[in-house]
Amino acid sequence: MRRPAMLTDERGSSPVEFVLVGTLLTALTLAVLQVAFAIYVRNVVHDAAAEGAHYAALADTSPGEGVLRTREVISRAIGPEYAEDVSVGEDTSLGHPSVVVRVRTTLPVLGLIGIPYGMEVDARAPVETLGEE
Q1: 3-class DSSP state for residue 16?
Q2: Rounded to whole angstroms, how far apart are CA atoms 41 and 131?
Q3: pTM for the whole structure
Q4: Average pLDDT for 95-110
Q5: I want to staple 101 with a disulfide (CB 3.0 to 4.6 A). Which of 23, 24, 49, 60 is the partner?
Q6: DSSP string across 48-97
Q7: Are the CB atoms for 98 and 92 separated by under 8 Å?
Q8: What is the C-alpha R_g of the chain?
């Protein structure tokens, strides 16, 4: 039994396959880039929090100056909208006084658009003391 000619004719299928595969590869590439961007934002925010904690832990600075330093670093790297919720506190959970800087910021999901307060990063630094007399 022979099939009709129109069922075995494959002319015109290459452009359709190209569009389908191209769409899939483009979506995959964009997803990988978005994950890389989210990791970049997390690393910048963590490094800024660590720098702010170390700065706030110095003997001649106040905790508020650590918050300002953290906001400045985040604002320069990824934008001021990512540096809106920065807090500082003190902690002794590691057995010695420490300064803790906590940053809650947007987790980017689609470009810079993301989940507000979807990412929280903490950084600690031991409090510097001048020599005891």
Answers
A1: helix
A2: 38
A3: 0.79
A4: 91
A5: 49
A6: HHHHHHHHHTSTTS-HHHHHHHHHHHHHHHT-GGGSSEEEEEEE-TTSS-
A7: yes
A8: 26
8 in a structural domain = no
The token pair that represents 23 in the structure block: 């769409």
**Count: domains in the chain:** 1
- Tell me if 9 is assigned to some domain: no
Classify 26 as helix, strand or coil. Answer: helix
Strands 113-126 and 98-110 turn out to be: antiparallel
Residue 36 lies in a domain: yes
CB 56 within 8 A of CB 66: yes
Backbone angles phi, psi at 62, to 5 degrees: -105, 160
Residue with token string 């979506």:
27
Domain span at residue 24 reads 14-126
Residue that has been written with the tokens 């904690």 in this structure: 53
Which amino acid is present at 4?
P
pLDDT in tens, 53-64: 999 999 888 899
